[in-house]
Amino acid sequence: MSTTNPVPTTSRRSSAPRSARAARLVANVLTYGFLLAGAVLMVAPFVFSVMTSLKTSRQFNTSSPLATPEPATVENYVSLFGERYDFVVPIAVTAQVVLVLVLGQMLTSILAAYAFAQLDFPGRDAIFWVYVSTLMIPAVVTIIPLYSMMTELGLKNSFAGLVVPFMFGSPYAIFLLRENFRSTPSDVLDAARIDGAGVLRRLWQIMVPMNKPILATLLLITVVSQWNNFMWPLVIAPRPEWHVITVATAALQTQYNGNWTLVMAATTIALAPLVILFLVFQKQITSSLGVTGVR
Amino acid sequence: MNGRQRIEARAGYLLLIPSFIGVGVFLLLPVVIVVVLSLTRYNLISPPEWFGLQNYAYILGWDRFRNSLLVTAAFTAITIPVSIAIGLLLAVAINRRLPGTSWLRVLYVLPWVCAPLALGVVWRWILDPTNGALNALLGRRIEWLADVDLALPAVAFVQIWSTVGYISLFFLAGLQQIPVSVYEAAELDGAGAARTLWSITLPLLRPTMFFVTVTSIISSFQVFDSIYAMTGGGPRFSTDVIASRIYDEAFVALRLGRAAAMAVVLFVVLVAITLVQQRYFRRRITYDMS
Hints:
The structure holds two protein chains of two kinds.
Chain A: H1 18-53, H2 57-62, H3 75-80, H4 88-118, H5 124-133, H6 139-152, H7 159-163, H8 171-182, H9 186-194, H10 199-210, H11 212-228, H12 231-236, H13 245-255, H14 260-288
Helix pairs in contact in A: 1-14, 4-8, 4-11, 4-13, 9-10, 11-14, 13-14
Chain B: H1 3-37, E1 40-41, E2 49-50, H2 54-60, H3 63-95, H4 104-113, H5 116-126, H6 133-138, H7 151-177, H8 180-188, H9 193-204, H10 206-221, H11 225-230, H12 242-252, H13 256-284
Antiparallel strand pairs in B: 1-2
Helix pairs in contact in B: 1-13, 2-13, 3-7, 3-10, 4-7, 7-10, 10-13, 12-13
């Protein structure tokens, strides 16, 4: 973009004034500097924590925290999976919780978003308004009543206690999907309806395929938020056999306070699956958030 | 209403049933229950006993609760403007599409996909006064998380660090939706870069700004995990955000009635903020993209 351009002609780019070109160069240098500094600041904590997890306590205590591990050791990881602290359990519990919640939330949210976006029924907008208004309800407000509900039902320290309150859709997912489903061209859906396609067929054969990018994004966001969930599992499933990975990490930090090499091994295990998942599927999340349909 | 419309209407209600369990039973009903619990004295062991408005009377005069409201407000006031400003800058910078920069945005979003609890633990080590990475880098001994004046800025910094990349994605998405023709028209009219940003980009990003601000406030008022990991609300309650206070009262001190009253107050404050904000934004977004 040129900043000074008094004559709007089509050949202006080649004949841009020198000052404009200099300004663009400065802007480019600043942009690179800003983006690179940001990248370093973002990545450094991860790099240093992984490095620490690969040190022995002796190495860690006798050299700078920033020094590279020499030699690198996996002894912290071994002891996490050994007799000292069984990290297999929280990984297994977390994986099952994530699976159930992702399936439940995706399915119910797709159904609801489709109803709100494409079907006509009395009270639709009022119900949608109620759904959206529940976005304002903080988790910390519902945690006490949910805790007493689940405890009354005898679901404390159980798998059901971990998943039941959150497997029936999320207002956020419904809101996001409805916005996308609304912008799906209605002529395609109308044509399918004229051809005799029922409500569900239009959903599975047109709506879902046409909205794959946002569904992929939503899937990713749901996996991420459920894997990372902490407060609810901390409250409802405090027993070690039902520890999810975040609760197990917190417990480990309390138990081995100051033993940073071991604790950083735990955080690496808690973080690595999502970091890998994200690096593999980053295109879906970075490119799909903006895709809200053809306008 | 003809036959087809009736079928569609029925289908609409049927499709809403599963999510209505989620919204009705596990979101709206708990709000009712929390209000009821806030009027009782309840310690999980004996059944709740009626307590009237005494919980409210108590907490409104309680320093520790007022402190938590202030800490939460300060935390929000620091984190949201800064992360929106940096997020917007990041988006504008990435959107210039300079060669070799497109993969960088992956790194900015990285903290956002990570468990705040685990990141909090990582930052607790980084900010550790004796063995932490930051003090090793600075060559000084600063008690980042144990100093009453530094702890809140420190946890706010970590929050900003972990959310800017995510926020920038929304701005980037918003930027990419602005038709190139709008910019071409502005250029033809002789608008400079600053003028274009101020008069075209920012107004057209207002829906994004609204979305980001609302969701950021909501999440900022609920911040818990990273603070639980880093300071546990200390030192001397200087990072005792409202969620930490509610958690402590409910699940450590087992005063669920009092904790429920605090949750209700938080909820009212949050709804008020959202309504005011909505009003403000509605008055100002009056264009239509289509």
